[in-house]
Every structure is written in C-alpha cells, then in structure tokens.
Amino acid sequence: MNKAVASTLVAVLTITAAAGCSGKPHRTVRASPVAAESSPPPEPLTPDVAAKAFHSFVNNDDVARASGDERLALWWTSEGQSQLTAAAFRRAVAAGDPVPRYHYADPVLYVPHLLLTGPQWFVVSARRTRADGKDPHTVYMGFLRTKSVQRWRLSALAVLDAKQKPPKIAVGSDGYAKALATFDNALLIPPRLVPSIQATLAEEGPQNVAAQVMRAGKYTTGYYAADQKAMKNKKAKKAGLHSSVVYAATSFPIFPLATADGGGMVLYALSRDTVITKTKGKDKSDHFPVPDDAAPFLTAKSVKSEIDISQTMQYVAVVPAKPKKQDGTVKAQIVGADGGTVKAAVPAK
C-alpha cells in the first residue's frame, strides 16, 4: 500500500478533517452531495414536492420503457443512473428484447431541510418489482435538482440485499429527515470517504488498513478475491489472457442521511474499469471472444489484443457513529448495490 493511501486511511481511523487521498486512481468524491448553484433559488423542497417528483419519474420512466423511448428515459435521469439507463436500452436492442419495466410500491420519502440557495435532493425507499410483479426488492433512490429550471431526476439507485434489514432513517416530528455533511466527523467514516474506502478494499484486499473501518463482504474483499482468481485462472493464462481491474470513487453526487442510531446511510457510486489483454498463447491466436457483458456495446464477436470495459456500480452503505475507542469491531457495511457495464471499447488501431 502506498504512502498516500496509508495517509488517507490513517486519517479516517483517527477521524480528523484532514483526510488524504490515494495516489492510486481512488478519486475522492466532491465535498458536498451536489454542486453549489447560483440564484434564482428553486422551489422549496417539501414532502409534497418530493412525492410529486417521485411519481412524475415513475410514470414517465414507465412510458419511456414501454415505448422504447430512450431519449425520454434519459431526460428523467442523471449521472450514474443515466449511464445505466442507456446501457439497459442498449442491451435490450442487442438481445431483441423489450426494455425492462418496473413497478414501485409503498414509497417512503426521506426529505431533508436544505438551503433554498443550494441544490435540492431527497431519497426514496420503495418496493420495486418487474412489471409482471416478479423479482421484488427494496430499492433506495436518490433524486436531484441542481437548478430551478431543471426537473427532478433520478441520480442514483441501489437495491437492498435480500434478507438485509433496512437502515432506520432518523425523521423528525416535522416529517423531515436529517441530511449529513459529507465531511461529518461524528461518523466512523466521513460520508465523502466511504467510496474511496470501498475502492481501496476492493483493489487491495483484506490486508489493507481500510479493513479496520469497513466490513469484509462481496462488495469489498469479495471483489478482490474474484479479481485475483480471474488473474490466476489457468485456462485464461493458457489462452494468453491477462486482466487488470481498477476501482475508483466518482465525481457523482452522494446522498448522506442520518440514521436513528446516530450513524448514517450513504448512497453513492463507484466506477470499475477492466482491461483484458491477450498475448499469443498456445492457441497461437491474437484474437479472443468478447465477454458477454461487453457484447451489446461492440459489433465484433471477437477482438484483437485488448478490450476495455467500464462499469458503473451504485451502493447504499450504513456507517456507524464514531466509537469513543476504536477497537476494529465497529465497522461500516455495504447493504445494497446495483449497476453493470456501461461501455466497452477496443483501442484505436
């Protein structure tokens, strides 16, 4: 682990405000959930406004998916969710299938008090199924409006893991949730550093000091183990295939809310970039098949020498309050995810 990464993680462990960044491509998200905007101020955010925005998205998204209107669907999304929505349409066209449609039930809106001069956002948890009622899951959705002339758009969505208990969001007697500052040092990990900590564990594994503040699991050390297994795969080596993976925090907005136990819930995104290269193995060929997840984004069924695959992954994590004495037992946990491949390309000749 390089010194810059160590500096960042030591800063997190001591919970100081001067946390550093990894010298690796673990880019730290910006210091506020959304970028500051100038006047005129948007319409004040209230639970009623949020409910209207949520239902407008649900209705228009369904119309767009039912009619195959990608442009309309993208008009109601932003950031990572735009990338994933475009990818969903691309996969459907490639497979000759209709775009998946969803039904949302029992929405619970978490609307924070926000400055009228700043950008507006809120989070919704809802029970989502396919249009046929199958595949039920609880999803967390982050909605964003950065200018008064813009409509509300879905920026991020993560699916709560099966059998995972939903985090209990703190809601006041007035019906409003509490937004957390992204640099909030009352938490074990400040919200803005949660993506970088996850990226570090996914790329460097359980031996990294980040394991002291975030739990091992399929979205952290599980990624590391899978990537290591792929790199050591004997069949791939025999074919001359080599892969490298980089995880990084994005510049997309994050959505941090206080939980009833004094901790926080954070909704955010990571990027996962994979490069697969080929040397002439025992098969004497310099071509190799396009991976299934990349196939909808390329016209060729095989590529020569190299393919670059980009994924956008979105997560919901719960972060406990900073304990009086850190002993390594109190840790943040990622409780849900969504995402997939959004781009695949081959180097220009």
Structural description of this entry:
The protein has 349 residues and is α+β, with helices and mostly antiparallel strands. The chain has one domain (3-345). The chain contains seven helices and eleven strands. It has helices at 3-14, 47-67, 70-75, 79-95, 194-204, 221-231, 234-238; strands at residues 102-110, 120-130, 137-145, 153-160, 241-249, 255-258, 264-278, 287-289, 302-304, 306-319, 333-345. The strands form two sheets. Strands 1, 2, 3, 4, 5, 6, 7, 10 and 11 form a nine-stranded antiparallel β-sheet that branches. Strand 3 and strand 4 form a beta hairpin. The chain is globular, with a radius of gyration of 21 Å.
SSE blueprint and pairings:
Layout: H1 3-14, H2 47-67, H3 70-75, H4 79-95, E1 102-110, E2 120-130, E3 137-145, E4 153-160, H5 194-204, H6 221-231, H7 234-238, E5 241-249, E6 255-258, E7 264-278, E8 287-289, E9 302-304, E10 306-319, E11 333-345
Antiparallel strand pairs: 1-2, 2-3, 3-4, 4-11, 5-7, 6-7, 7-10, 8-9, 10-11
Helix pairs in contact: 5-6
Signal peptide: 1-19
Organism: Actinoallomurus spadix
Protein name: DUF8094 domain-containing protein
